[in-house]
Amino acid sequence: MRILIAEDERDLNELIRKKLTSEGYSVDACFDGNEALDFLESGVYDGAVLDVMMPGRDGFQVLEAARAKGIDTPVMFLTAKDAVEDRVRGLDKGAADYLIKPFSFQELMARLRVMTRKKYSTPSNVLQAGDLVMDTARQEVRRGDRRVELTTREYTLLKYMMLNQGVVLSRDQIQDHVWNYEYQGGTNVVDVYVRYLRLKIDEGEDVKLIQTVRGRGYVLRPSDEEREKTE
Description:
There is one protein chain. A hairpin with a 3-residue loop joins β10 and β11 (217-220). The protein is elongated. The chain folds into 2 domains: 2-120, 3-Layer(aba) Sandwich (Rossmann fold); 126-220, Arc Repressor Mutant, subunit A (Orthogonal Bundle). A 5-stranded parallel β-sheet has the order 2-1-3-4-5, sandwiched between helices. The chain is built from 8 helices and 11 strands. With 231 residues, the protein is of the alpha/beta class. Residues 226-231 have low confidence and may be disordered.
């Protein structure tokens, strides 16, 4: 899941970025409203956390401009402005949520899970594809009775594929959602990490969940049915 953070308090910005990264999110961070709008226009995000009081444009203005451009990224406002009229204004402009400072990171993470669940129409924190189960609240993955240990990046990639199971994802789509703008690695990074996942998820299993679709990309399917020119 790729998240944008726009918060002008640099220490808080860094704390949020580190927390989200440790929880498996791919994160881009900026410090003013103009930058935030640039990121939203040029990237594909599963959610954005916007401070209301920022230089350049405030959070309300960023959201208003983004919606005017047809950008439907779910937005959570993070702010010390706790008046009812401010919360109503933010929600009326199209925000998905509004979190008041000071806040607990536990609550922030729970609200982000709810916000992204709504985007992908998933009713709970548990994702399932066949006998592969991911608990996003506990960050636990199991294949049948076997617990699967994943790195942060492997977990993020698997989560994105499980949220889009049955959908063929191109390498560009995967890279845009799983890696942020700071990534400086090789162009074959998606293939490398899909191979890592296959070793941990499908190795020794009768049903191979992660499939390659020639010329198009990768797909996670809950069974061997409906294969189309896989290799």
